[in-house]
Structure formats: structure tokens, C-alpha cells
Amino acid sequence: MSGSVLRPRDIDTLRAELRSLGSATGLPILFGGAVQGADLVLTGHVGTRGRRLRNLVISSERGLGGRAIAEQRPGAVTDYFASRHITHDYDRPVASEGIESLLAVPVVVRGVTRAAMYGGLRTPAPIGEVVAERFVRSARELAREIEIRDEVDRRITLLENTEGDPRPLPRAVSDTITESYLALRELAAITADPELEEHLRAIEEKLRGIGGAGGKTARVSLTARERDVLGYVALGCRNAEIAERLSLSTETVKSYVRGVLAKLEVHSRHEAVVEARRQGLIV
Fold it and tell me: Which of 56, 91, 105, 114 could join 74 in a cystine, given CB atoms 3.0 to 4.6 angstroms apart?
């Protein structure tokens, strides 16, 4: 399983975010990286001239970035080498790039610093609030993408535990799989990363196929939205809750439910779930 659907690399998304920030802010130098243990490793660079910053390890609470990681809030210095508010452990690599003003913004996911992004000027001029706000917004967007990927990793263990198992799935496992592929569909709808969206869709389809069909051919065809509604019905969700999850009106959900009942030729939500499972339409 792990060889067929892999988590896209977070650092690739961070690098893309740095390039976007460079275009949006006009800052001449940007860099950043992911937190590994208690340290930050700088593996993303835009506009750097030398190699002193490449793969540089920033310790927590050391330097401007280390302080941003530890305090989980942005930090900035206008005259880097004269600043008394940071340690100066990394003066040499900073000096090698001619950086005078520096901004560091942490990427915080569920209370844990996972990455950091820097923007710098080669003159001792302040980095404006507009640029700082753009960095903070980008950090939040990146944090959301990482959180989505974490959720994918958590859900994907279902595939590893159930794929290829010919035995009927216990109802608790079946419900968990259904809830998982519906959650992944919701996440795919809100991510801004096309690669991650494709990744989520692939996992969703694999989860939908686990244990449901059993070699049977369904007599009816449901639309993607009808399958979503039916999945939530199988989890015991009320129409109002389904409407909220799918960003639909309650009346629209009721209409989908009526359509599913008609297609399956049943008279109740419970009968619809039983028949859908019998035909392999849901897990």
C-alpha cells in the first residue's frame, strides 16, 4: 500500500510557498524548512547566492528562527547584527548572504511547530506589516495543508489493515472506513494543492472499494453526491448534519435521500443502507 499511494513531500509545498511569497512580496531572499525533532533544517531557498544557508540546522530558541519556533509566533529584526533580542549563533551564514533585515514565521499545526519560513532584505530597512501579514497568511495555509496530510496518514492505516482481507468486515470497521473516505472527500474539496487533491481522491477511491463489493455487480448506479449522502446515512447522520457536512440545504439532502430510496426500491433509510451494502455500493 505504502508503495502505491505516497504522501507528497511537505518540503515541496513549502518551497512552492516560498516562490509564491517571493513573487507576491518582492523580497530578494527567502528560505525555510521543516522541523525535525527540536531543530529546523533549511532546505528551501529562493534568491540565495551561496551555500551557507543550505541544510543549515537551526536549534530551537537559537537565533531569530529558533525563537520563532519556540515561541510559535513571528519575529523580525531590522538591523540583524546589532539586535540584542536574539542570539547570534548564525551570524556567519546570515552575513554570507548580505542579509540585514530578517523576518521569521513559524508554521504551527495543532500546537506543534512543523516548519518555518524566512524573508530577508539586504538593506537595514524594516520589513513592512503588509509583507509580514502575507507571510503569516501563507504560514497558516501551509499549516492547513500539512494538517490535511497528517489526516491522510492517519486514515491510510485503514487500507494497510484491511486491504486484501477476504473476511467480512466488522460493522465498526466498516463504519470507520465509510467515515474515512467521506472525510477525505471533504478534505480534497478544500485543499489548494492539486497534487495533494489527487492523492486524497486516490485514497478515497481505494477506501470505497474495501470490502464493499465482494465481487457483486450493483443493479443501480448512484451519482457521486448520492453516494456521499448514502454514506452519511449509513453512519446514522440526520439530514441537517449531512447538509452541514456537504454544504447543502436540508431540502436538497432530503431530495437526494428520496432519489436513493427510489433507485434502490426501498422505503426507509435503514432498508437503503442494507440494500446498498448487499449490492456493494457502500462498505
Answer: 105
